[in-house]
Design brief:
The protein has helices spanning 31-36, 370-376; strands spanning 2-8, 15-25, 43-46, 75-78, 99-110, 115-128, 131-137, 140-146, 171-185, 188-201, 207-208, 214-215, 239-240, 247-259, 262-273, 282-284, 288-290, 304-318, 321-333, 341-344, 388-391, 396-404. The chain has 405 residues and is mainly beta.
Length: 405
């Protein structure tokens, strides 16, 4: 359902007040049923390795072993226990589709016949998500297909003693945009905008911004285990999400210079934005990444800016054949070859040291000192912690040749 309006405030066709409201339901993607309803298989078979030469292992393989010639495994862990077995009651019978609500209101004023100024406020919030909400069982991880914060995820019978209920998936976006637009006239056009915004919550969306944009809709890492939603103090982790950019300025322009030999187009593009939040991660129970200090404790990446440029020239092949034209162009991405840092290592624990363990998993929610625990368990800090690991791509030039006939 959607509802919108527009009002000519002064009745002169130059000042418009407008607004809209809508509820948007997501269409279920294939990733979740494939991975959670038995389509994907993932089992770990753990064998004794008494001799480093595996070719000497000649014992007959048991029926449940995928490796011929290996002895009987002393542990089998199933990481893809199907979530659609009716006897397990792992699909919430009251499951509802993912839904978000969007509303905005704005004012636009025509400054001239070709130029307009626009100011708009937008609010975009998540009502509910669908995720595989997990817990640890004797045979491995067990997932409930549910709406986090609703239904079986907030039923005390779902969780072991000492474990909290699953929090609601939250993703709230608020933005105020000011835009000035010049339609094409007198050989040029441009659009310039400034946006102040805030993206806040605990859920990045169907593409997980907490996992560098991992695209596993409805089965990303969010809510995979109860520990992921809490910090070192046992408090729910809420804050600025990983793609939040408070300030954003954009400019797009085009100028067309005509001459006897054809028309040349110049098209500058410039973007400048705040950096994105960086958050310390420590791997804990069942290799779970924990935001121990809450979101954004490491500050932000540097201010992101990039300048692109288009240069194109179009000319006629022959005065006798005006419909025949040729255009050559050059697109330059990152004109000034900036190497701005766009991401940094956020993992605090050394990647070769496994995870921080608890004697009793429920103790996690009582609060803990992860640094003291790492020292006691002889775990190291990753030497790459807080160092840059991703940069703005280098200057890129693309040339084009076009024929029109």
């Amino acid at each position: 359902p959607r509802l919108g309006f527009a009002w000519d405030v002064l009745g002169d066709g130059k000042t418009k007040l407008f607004g809209a409201f809508g509820l948007f339901y997501d269409t279920m993607k294939y990733e979740m049923p494939r991975g959670s309803f038995g389509g994907d298989k993932w089992k770990d078979y753990v064998y004794p390795l008494d001799d480093p030469d595996i070719l000497k292992l000649k014992a007959p393989a048991p029926p449940n072993s995928p490796l011929s010639g290996f002895p009987k495994p002393f542990e089998i862990v199933d990481w893809r226990i199907p979530s659609n077995d009716p006897s397990d009651n792992t699909i919430d019978p009251n499951l509802k589709p993912m839904r978000r609500r969007v509303w905005d209101i704005g004012l636009e004023r025509a400054l001239s016949d070709t130029m307009a100024l626009n100011v708009r406020y937008t609010h975009n919030s998540l009502d509910r998500a669908i995720e595989d909400v997990g817990t640890l069982g004797a045979a491995g991880e067990i997932y409930f297909i549910a709406n986090p914060g609703f239904g079986i995820t907030v039923n005390p019978k779902t969780w072991d003693p000492g474990f909290p209920m699953t929090p609601k998936a939250k993703r709230n976006y608020d933005a105020v945009e000011t835009r000035i637009e010049k339609r094409f006239s007198r050989n040029y056009t441009f659009v310039g905008s400034y946006t102040w915004s805030r993206l806040w919550g605990n859920y990045g969306g169907l593409a997980s911004s907490d996992e560098n944009g991992r695209m596993s809709p409805n089965v990303n890492r969010y809510f995979d285990l109860p520990f992921m939603s809490y910090d070192k103090s046992g408090k729910e982790v809420l804050g600025l999400l990983a793609t939040d950019r408070t300030h954003s300025f954009k400019f797009f322009g085009s100028y067309n210079l005509k001459s006897k030999v054809g028309a040349t187009t110049f098209g500058p593009i410039f973007i400048a934005q705040s950096g994105t939040p960086l958050t310390t991660e420590v791997t804990m129970v069942s290799s779970t990444p924990i935001f121990v200090n809450g979101r954004g404790d490491l500050g932000r990446t540097p201010v992101y800016s990039q300048t692109d440029f288009l240069l194109a020239h179009e000319f006629k092949v022959s005065p006798k054949h005006e419909h025949l034209r040729v255009k050559v162009d050059m697109n330059v991405t990152n004109l000034f070859n900036q190497a701005t840092t766009v991401n940094s290592f956020a993992g605090y624990l050394h990647s070769n040291d496994g995870q921080v363990n608890f004697d009793h998993e429920a103790d996690f929610f009582k609060g803990f000192d992860y640094q003291k625990m790492m020292t006691a368990q002889k775990l190291r800090t990753d030497p790459r912690f807080k160092l840059p690991n991703d940069f703005l791509g280098p200057r890129d030039l693309r040339f084009g040749l076009h024929f029109y006939f």
